[in-house]
Every structure is written in structure tokens, then in C-alpha cells.
Specification:
Structural class of chain A: mainly alpha
Distance between the termini of chain A: 46 Å
Distance between the termini of chain C: 23 Å
Oligomer: heterotrimer
Helix content of chain A: 55-70%
Shape of chain A: globular
Largest interface: B-C, 51 and 58 residues
Number of domains of chain C: 1
Structural class of chain C: mainly alpha
Strand order of the largest sheet of chain A: 1-2
Strand order of the largest sheet of chain C: 1-2
Number of strands of chain C: 2
Largest sheet of chain C: 2 strands, antiparallel
Strand content of chain A: under 5%
Strand content of chain C: under 5%
Order of helices and strands of chain A: HHHHEEHHHHHHH
Chains: A mainly alpha (about 290), B alpha/beta (about 400), C mainly alpha (about 325)
Number of strands of chain A: 2
Radius of gyration of chain C: 19 Å
Chain lengths: ~290, ~400, ~325
């Protein structure tokens, strides 16, 4: 049996691989959506934070001599802490301005961070290998999956679910959601909105840092690893709309799969397929799949 | 009315930053390098190339024809317009005699044309575009270290001779990759090998699993990456993850790999890969002597382009001395006449089209167990003779060679 | 409004006419091209309130089309420029059609993504020559008389074309069309209730902005005799944002000042030991945090403090510093 002249095993394999890339899209767009929800800032520095997460993982191994699991905890914390500094020192003082200034500011921060990292660590990057537990591959018959990639999909799904539960099902989450809807009213109830805003940015940054650690064994750890990714993630975010967190997650995985399939059916378009899907979405539903018209 | 002085001030402030530096005394021999000092290519060229040029000047003795030798450099920031406007300024105002390297092929080709216009000399070390000695060749330009034709051809021929006769290409999807693959395919076929498949990947794709699975399901025994820079690094890293090229019967071949990239990947990931290079620091006594001096200054070993900057600058200075003038035409004649023998190249010579003809080497990346320490990365597998590696005169598209024949 | 601009504009023109005595014509040409590019970008940001993060797509299209027409079709330079403008405008109409459906941050992200798509298309299209770029351009004779191989003739041709383009921008900003654009920026629902179709007006402005950016790119390709991928990258889009930010959003001459400062800064950084990307990133942060009016905006408000009668509450730049978009 063949589908459009391609064996189904190949297609199934590409779907699985697309899900792995989708894991990164989902984690990153979820972080962007959380930040946007409270700060109304599109965090252009998200790619740089992702890169910092990968480098933090390298540092915990190379400098502190700790293992991958330690990196998985330390790196998101470190990036989250950095996010706190950025929020307090820079973003805080521009909330009253047009939201576009937030975009411009974080763009500048991204350039600065990437420039500094290139200056310190060189453009070619640093070595990072797969943790020993996840060495090797699973042969599923129709496709070969490196064990580590299986772990990435699992880790990403669990994290997305946990964050979603945190925000949709807990008291803290209800404050966050309320502050998104109407910050003034929420502060009248004696809730510290400023703290909520900061924690939203820290959470988003930590998610980007976590994606970075997860990416370090797969992608070469270089100062530019987040630069091209962030533009793709922006397209994912526009396609999904900023309306819901679950929307960001689902669109992330979905776009990964679409990209994976394009690599089989028409490889020449795989670099642009996500942008084309975004353009089509704008024609059909300008607010995005899960978006409310802003 | 009051607006004018402020506008004037703004304009002056803006343009004063670019004020031309005062021209130094004309009685110096100057070589310039237009390098990416802080961007993506700063590891493979950048400060290291400038240091190599400075070492050459120092070793030459600092003066030639009784004039001091100076090295100038600029950060061209990977922008063609910056590179060209600085090249013009160097030639016109600073009386720079030769530009001995420039990042980016587009900038290098443009600078080479300016050299023609200004009657100066241009040596290309870092870029590998075959255009320099084909369509865009000119009497003012030397292409010194390598070009993509030589890398593809050398790897193709040497690997097939070593038994790797069924090739699968993972190719970056634009002109560079297409040409690269075509050249390698020709070389593979010329030695009796065959291409069993290929897949195109977008530039900066970062994920290569799809391509690697296709490569794995083919019956190829060589998987070649017609890619560059971060793309190659990602592809090699993920090939290791999929268990390709390590412990199976397939070999990986990177068509364009700098030692800096192997360093950044680590031996555990890169081990077993085949690659072609014009230089490796640990070939013999002479290469080690130079490289260890370089290491003291830079903290890392030189790659082929950085060593090439030293060698080509030295050859240029020797030619100036032999010609007794800095006039480009006479110096160029001497450079093409004198054979090159130093740590970098043995019995090298510069062909009429500007191509420096030298032997290329096929290397295999060592495993962590084989390596005895930092930068002990390569093992030499084969030598490809210059005439075998570079574009033969019969296939050249350079008018300078056509006139000759 | 008009009077306050006459003197600075004249002063600038005089300075630009004598500038080749001090600076390289080719360097000045680069500044002029960037100034026109920034003005095209600012037409959208300053007067319609739309921040495009993908304007390099039009700049690069102009460069590639002009190079293609000059190098391969041997068109006359003025025809090559017209061709560049036409194709950029057409691309602008298509991208604008998609992008103007959303505003603010979404608009910025959409233009960034579509700009990246255009980059990939040029990267993969064989005619652009990949990293080598389109080469072998001979500019020829402008209008059949001006020999563009002479650097000074080239410079004054570029100066004349950019001055004309700026006059056109000025004319449009001051026209009823420009007024409606500003009305839409200030209060879109009200403009709708007055019977205007904001989407159509925004699309027209976007297309015109794209055409101007294409002209800037075409001029640059013609002058530097090369068109490369650098001009289509998102970094170039970011740079034009920075130019406008440094110069001052909402002032007519702001983009020019900004382009001159950033162009000059890059040239300066080339010969200094400072890392250029870090400095440009820091400039972005500084401008947003402390210097939102930009050089021209600050200069103007300094003047207005001295002559308070000129200060009016509806000055576009004072509003623009707090709200770029409604």
C-alpha cells in the first residue's frame, strides 16, 4: 500500500519525527503565550533564552562537572533568574508604553545576548553529547527513533500538561488568568499584580531554558541556535493565535508534523511550509486557530 | 532658523564617525584583511587570520625594500557594502598594497574587482567559491587555500579509492549545495563509484533526522554532507545520535569541515568522519612548529585558512623583495614564477588563473581513545595530488587560461 | 509644518552636495540608500502606525530585480530601477494583503515571518547565485546621458533620485490621503464611521512603502554593482527599525538622521575593536529605555521648549513616543 507513491512507514516515521520538532515549537510557543498573556509583550529574546538554556547545560557539565539531570534542573532555574533580572531592570519600565516597544526592547536584548555569547564562546559552539542512559536507538520497525528523542517528546508533553494544569486548574493560575483579563480589578482584590507579571516572565523564560537543555544533545550548542528558530515559532504563534495556552501547545505539535510531512512530499518547500500555513490561516481566520480578534 | 545648527550637528555627528583615518606615510608596505571579527565566521577566520598575517610579517623581519610592513584589518560584519567601501578606502587613502583575505565569497569577489580597478593585489584564503578562478578570474587575484571543487573532488576520489563506492548525499538546498554535490558526484563516478540517492535540506534547518533516515534506508556505504558551518555540525551530531557512521558499515564524509567545527562537536560525536583539508597542524615538524607558536597567541590551533594567510602573506612579501617593487603586476609575476615551499605547502605554484596548486589531504577524525590530547583530532588517510584535486585547465572557465592555450 | 522643515531640508541638501569633498561618494551613496529605505519603513510606522519587521524583503527584492535587469537583460538604469520598484510594489501588495488583516504586534510578527519566507525563496532561486550574489553589473548611462561609471556622477544621480523620492513621500504625507492614514492611526472606528475603508488605505500605504524600499535596494545594487542575500535577511529588517528608532519616530527627517548615524557607526565599528552586534543590541535597548524620541525628535522638542507657541498637543511625535499604534 502506498500513499501518493510513498510507503506508509516512511510517512508514519516522519509524523513521529515531526512530533519531536513540534515538542520544541510547543514549549517555546507556550512560553511566549504565557508572557504575552500577562505582559502583552512578544518576547523576541525567547530564542536567546533558549540558547542560554543550552549553554547553561553545557556549563553545568563542563564547569561544574554535573550530569544531565542536574542540568535539566539548574539550567531552567538559571535562565528563569536571568528572566527575572530582565523583567525587573528593563521590561518593567516600559509597560505603560505601546506594546511594540516591548518587541523592540526584547529584540535588542536578543542581539546583545547573542553577541556576547559569540564573543565569549565562539561562533562554532560547544560539544554536548547525549546522556548515557539515552544512548542508542529504538527500532520500531517502520522507523528508527533515538532513545533520547523519545525522552524529549515525553518531557515536553509532561511539561506542557503540567504548565497547563498549573494555570488552568490552580489558585495561582486563576490569579494569573484574572490578571490577564483585568489587571486593575485584580489589584483591587489585594493581589500583587506586579509579582504575577514577574512570575509570568520567569516561567516563560524557564520554559525556554528547559527547551534549550532538551535541545543541547540534539542540536549543536551555538550562540545562534535560537535565532532562526524564533522566527518559525512566531509563525506558529500567529497561526495558533494567542487566545489559549492549549492552542499554543496544539499548534506547536501540529506545525512540527506538517513540517515533517513536507520533508517527504516536497522537500524544497520544507523551509517555507510553516510560513505558508500561517499565510493561509490569515486568509481564512485572521485571528488564528484559537485566537480572539485583538 | 534655529533648526539648522541642530540638523547640521546631527549630520556631522553621524558622518564624523566614519571620518577617514589620516593616511599614514606612503613608505610602507601594507597588507589588509577584511574579516568577520565578531560574527558567524569569526572562529574560522577573524582574529586568528589577522594573527597569522602578523606572524608572517614578524617572521619576514618587519621590513621589505627598506620599508616597514604593516598589517591592517577591519571587521566587515558580513556586509558586502562595508567590505567594498573599506577596500576602496584602503587602496585610495591608506595605500594598502594587497588584501590578503576577505570573508564571504560575495564580498571577496567584489573586492577582487576593486583590486583590478586600483591595480592592487588580492589573495583569497577563507572563501571556497570556484568563481574566483573561473568566471570571475582576473590577473590581480590569487585563490590560495582551497575551493569547493577541490574539496568535493578530493573527497570523492579518495573515498572511492578507499572502498566507499555507494554515495548518498545530504545537500543544502541552494546553489552552493547543488554545485557541491554535482562536483562530488562527478568525482565519485570518475573513480567507478555511484550515487545511490540524495536528499535536499533547507539552509539552517537544524533538524536532519528526516534526511538521515532516508540515508539510512539506502544501501549507501558513504553518506556525504554537501553543507557548511552550523548545518554540517548539526547533521554530524544527529548522525551520531541515529548511530550512523559509528559502529555500522557506513562512513560519513563532510565535504567542507573546518577543524574548529570538529573541536566544537567533540571527538565522541565526530569520530570516524572523513574530510578533506589543505592543512592539519600535526602533519610534521614544520607544521607543529608554526602551529604551536600560533597556539601560544590564540589559544587554539590554526585551521587551513589561517595557516594559508601566513603562507600567502609570506609568499607575497618574498615576491615583493624579489621584484624590488610593490607594483602589483611585477609582484604577481614573481608570485606566479616562484615555487612555494614552507610548512603549509610543498612545491606549490600559482597557476595563470590565480589558482595556487597544492596537494590536498583526506583525513579521518580520531576516536576519543585514539586521541592523545587537545586538538589531536585527525589521522591522515590519503593524499590527493594537486592536478587531481583542482579544476583541470581543460575544464576551466577562466579567460586567462583560454588565452594561453 | 511645512515652514519648519524647509530650512533643515535645504541645509541637508547643501551639505549633501558638498559632502563628496570630504567623504567617499560610495559611502555617501550607501547612506542615501539607507535613508530612503528608512523613510519607506517610517512611512508605515510613523504615519500609519504599522511596524513592519520584514521590510528587508522589499529592499532585497529591489536589489535583486535591479541587478537582474542590469546584469542579465542589459536594461538602461532608469528602466532597471522602475522594474525593481514595480516588482517590489507587487510583492508589497501581496504581503500587505495578508499582513494588514492584523495590527500591532501581530502585524510585526507576520511581516517578519513572511519576510523570512521571501529570504528562503531567494536563497533557493537559482538566479540569485546563492552566496556569490548577482554580479557583473555595469550601470551604464542614466537617461542615456549620465555616465554612472564616474563615482561623482553616480552619487549625484542617486542624490537626485532619493531627493525626488523624498519629495514624493512629503507630498503623500501632506495629501488628503496622508491625512486619512493619520486619522486611521488615531481612531480607526471613527475613520470607518466616516466612510473610509481602513484596510484599503493601509494596503495602499504598505504597497507604496514597499515600492520605495525597492527603489532604495535597486539604487544600492546599481551603485555597488552587486546584489546579495545580506539585503534580504531579517537582520537588515532589524537594522532599518533601529535606524528609525535612533533618528526619531514621527519626524520627517528622523529616518534620514538615523540612517546616517547607523551607517556611520557601522563604518566606524569596522575599524575599531568593539564587537558590532553587541553595540547595535545595546543601542536598541538604550533607545527604547531612555531615548524614545530619537535624535530628530529630541532636537525638535528642545526647539519647541524654546519657542513654546509651536508646541501643539496633537504633535504626532509626542504621541508616537508613547503609542506607536493605537
Amino acid at each position: 500500500m502506498e500513499i501518493f507513491g510513498f510507503p506508509p512507514q516512511l510517512i508514519l516515521g516522519q509524523v513521529l519525527i515531526g512530533l519531536i520538532n513540534g515538542s520544541f515549537y510547543a514549549l517555546l510557543s507556550l512560553g511566549l503565550a504565557i508572557i504575552f498573556g500577562l505582559l502583552r509583550v512578544i518576547n523576541f529574546a525567547h530564542g536567546a533564552l533558549y540558547m542560554m538554556g543550552a549553554f547553561a547545560a553545557w556549563m553545568t557539565q563542563a564547569w561544574l562537572g554535573l550530569n544531565f539531570w542536574a542540568a535539566l534542573v539548574i539550567a531552567p532555574l538559571a535562565v528563569g533568574l536571568f528572566g527575572l533580572v530582565v523583567e525587573r531592570a528593563f521590561l518593567r519600565s516600559i509597560y505603560h508604553l505601546d506594546h511594540l516597544y516591548g518587541l523592540l526592547l526584547t529584540f535588542g536584548i536578543a542581539l546583545l545576548i547573542e553577541g556576547m555569547y559569540r564573543y565569549w564562546f565562539g561562533a562554532a559552539g560547544k560539544p554536548f553529547t547525549t546522556p548515557d542512559v539515552f544512548r542508542g536507538i529504538w527500532d520500531l520497525g517502520f522507523v528508527i527513533v533515538p532513545k533520547y528523542r523519545g525522552f524529549v517528546v515525553l518531557a515536553s508533553l509532561v511539561t506542557c500538561l503540567a504548565v497547563w494544569l498549573l494555570i488552568e486548574r490552580t489558585r495561582l493560575g486563576s490569579y494569573l488568568r484574572a490578571a490577564t483579563e483585568n489587571p486593575d480589578l485584580v489589584s483591587c482584590f489585594g493581589i500583587n499584580v506586579s509579582l504575577l507579571t514577574a512570575s509570568a516572565y520567569v516561567l516563560g523564560a524557564a520554559l525556554a531554558g528547559l527547551s534549550g537543555v532538551l535541545a543541547a544533545p540534539i542540536y549543536q550548542v551555538t550562540p545562534l541556535m535560537g535565532t532562526n528558530l524564533i522566527i518559525v515559532v512566531f509563525a506558529v504563534v500567529v497561526t495558533g493565535g494567542m487566545g489559549s495556552l492549549s492552542g499554543a501547545i496544539i499548534t506547536g505539535y501540529g506545525m512540527g508534523v506538517i513540517e515533517g510531512l513536507t520533508k517527504v512530499f516536497y522537500p524544497a518547500a520544507s523551509s517555507v511550509v510553516i510560513f505558508v500555513v500561517m499565510a493561509l490561516m490569515l486568509l481564512l481566520r485572521p485571528a488564528g486557530l484559537f485566537g480572539k480578534e485583538a | 532658523m534655529k533648526f539648522k545648527p541642530i540638523m547640521t550637528a546631527a549630520l556631522v555627528a553621524g558622518t564624523a564617525l566614519s571620518a577617514l583615518p589620516a593616511a599614514a606615510g606612503p613608505d610602507a608596505i601594507k597588507v589588509g584583511l577584511l574579516m568577520d571579527m565578531t560574527g558567524n565566521y569569526s572562529d574560522v577566520a577573524g582574529r586568528g587570520s589577522v594573527t597569522a598575517a602578523e606572524m608572517a610579517v614578524e617572521d619576514f623581519g618587519g621590513t621589505v625594500l627598506g620599508k616597514p610592513i604593516e598589517v591592517v584589518h577591519a571587521d566587515m560584519q558580513n556586509k558586502v557594502d562595508i567590505a567594498t567601501s573599506i577596500a576602496r578606502e584602503w587602496f585610495d587613502v591608506d595605500a594598502v598594497d594587497a588584501i590578503v583575505d576577505s570573508n564571504m565569497s560575495s564580498a571577496g569577489l567584489a573586492v577582487s574587482e576593486i583590486a583590478v580597478e586600483k591595480d592592487r593585489l588580492m589573495i583569497m584564503n577563507i572563501s571556497g567559491s570556484p568563481r574566483f578562478t573561473n568566471e570571475s578570474c582576473n590577473p590581480n587575484t590569487i585563490h590560495y587555500v582551497y575551493d569547493t571543487y577541490a574539496l568535493a573532488t578530493s573527497t570523492g576520489k579518495a573515498v572511492v579509492r578507499g572502498g566507499g563506492d555507494k554515495w548518498f548525499f545530504v545537500t543544502v538546498d541552494y546553489t552552493f549545495g547543488h554545485d557541491f554535490q554535482a562536483q562530488a558526484e562527478d568525482a565519485v563516478a570518475s573513480e567507478g563509484g555511484e550515487t545511490v540517492g540524495s536528499v535536499l535540506v533547507p539552509l539552517n534547518a537544524s533538524d536532519y533526522s528526516s534526511a538521515l533516515i532516508q540515508a539510512q534506508s539506502s544501501d549507501a556505504n558513504v553518506i556525504a554532507f554537501a553543507t557548511a558551518g552550523a548545518d554540517t555540525s548539526n547533521a554530524i551530531k544527529q548522525a551520531a545520535e541515529f548511530g550512523i557512521g559509528q559502529g555500522d558499515d557506513r562512513q560519513l564524509a563532510g565535504l567542507l569541515v573546518y577543524i574548529n567545527e570538529v573541536d566544537a562537536l567533540g571527538l565522541e560525536t565526530a569520530q570516524g568522519m572523513l574530510l578533506t583539508s589543505a592543512f592539519y597542524w600535526d602533519l610534521d615538524e614544520e607544521t607543529r612548529a608554526f602551529s604551536e607558536r600560533y597556539m601560544e597567541k590564540m589559544g587554539k590551533m590554526p585551521n587551513m585558512s589561517q595557516a594559508g594567510v601566513y603562507s600567502s602573506t609570506m609568499h607575497y612579501l618574498k615576491a615583493v623583495e624579489a621584484a624590488g617593487t610593490e607594483n602589483y603586476a611585477e609582484v604577481m609575476a614573481k608570485m606566479k614564477e616562484m615555487p612555494i615551499n614552507d610548512f603549509f605547502v610543498k612545491d606549490g605554484y600559482i597557476r595563470e588563473d590565480g589558482r595556487m596548486m597544492r596537494d590536498m589531504y583526506l583525513f579521518r577524525v580520531k576516536s576519543p581513545e585514539e586521541s592523545t590530547g587537545a586538538w589531536d583530532y585527525y589521522e591522515k588517510v590519503a593524499t590527493i595530488e594537486a592536478e587531481d584535486a583542482f579544476t583541470p585547465v581543460s575544464e576551466s572557465r577562466c579567460y586567462l587560461l583560454k588565452e594561453e592555450s | 509644518m511645512l515652514r519648519s522643515h524647509v530650512l533643515p531640508v535645504l541645509a541637508l541638501l547643501v551639505l549633501l552636495c558638498i559632502a563628496p569633498l570630504v567623504f567617499y561618494p560610495i559611502f555617501l551613496i550607501k547612506l542615501l540608500c539607507f535613508a530612503l529605505f528608512a523613510a519607506a519603513f517610517h512611512l508605515l510606522l510613523g504615519y500609519v502606525g504599522l511596524l513592519s519587521f520584514g521590510h528587508a524583503a522589499f529592499f532585497g527584492t529591489g536589489a535583486y530585480m535591479c541587478a537582474q535587469a542590469l546584469a542579465r537583460w542589459n536594461l538602461a538604469p532608469e528602466l532597471a530601477l522602475l522594474f525593481a520598484v514595480a516588482v517590489s510594489a507587487a510583492l508589497g501588495a501581496v504581503i500587505g494583503f495578508l499582513a494588514v488583516r492584523r495590527q500591532g504586534i501581530y502585524f510585526a510578527m507576520i511581516t517578519l515571518a513572511l519576510g523570512q519566507m521571501v529570504y528562503f525563496i531567494y536563497l533557493q532561486a537559482p538566479f540569485t547565485g546563492g552566496e556569490d550574489g548577482i554580479r557583473g553589473i555595469t550601470p551604464g548611462h542614466f537617461l542615456g546621458v549620465v555616465d554612472l561609471s564616474n563615482p561623482l556622477a553616480l552619487y549625484f544621480t542617486v542624490l537626485a533620485v532619493t531627493t525626488l523620492a523624498f519629495a514624493l513621500v512629503w507630498r503623500i504625507v501632506q495629501s488628503p490621503f496622508g491625512m486619512i492614514l493619520e486619522a486611521i492611526r488615531e481612531n480607526e472606528p471613527r475613520a470607518i464611521s466616516l466612510g473610509y475603508n481602513p484596510t484599503l488605505y493601509k494596503l495602499a500605504a504598505f504597497t507604496f512603502s514597499a515600492a520605495l524600499a525597492g527603489l532604495a535596494g535597486g539604487l544600492k545594487a546599481m551603485s555597488f554593482q552587486i546584489a546579495t542575500l545580506v539585503d534580504v535577511t531579517w537582520q537588515m529588517s532589524g537594522e532599518v527599525v533601529l535606524m528609525t528608532l535612533v533618528g526619531g519616530i514621527g519626524t520627517f527627517l528622523g529616518p534620514v538622521v538615523g540612517a546616517f548615524i547607523i551607517g556611520g557607526l557601522e563604518q566606524y565599528l569596522a575599524q575599531s575593536a568593539l564587537p558590532a552586534p553587541v553595540i547595535l543590541g545595546a543601542a536598541f535597548i538604550l533607545c527604547v529605555m531612555l531615548f524614545r524620541k530619537g535624535v530628530a525628535g529630541t532636537a525638535k522638542s528642545l526647539l519647541q521648549n524654546r519657542a513654546p507657541k509651536r508646541s501643539t498637543p496633537d504633535n504626532p511625535e509626542t504621541q508616537a513616543t508613547n503609542r506607536i499604534v493605537k
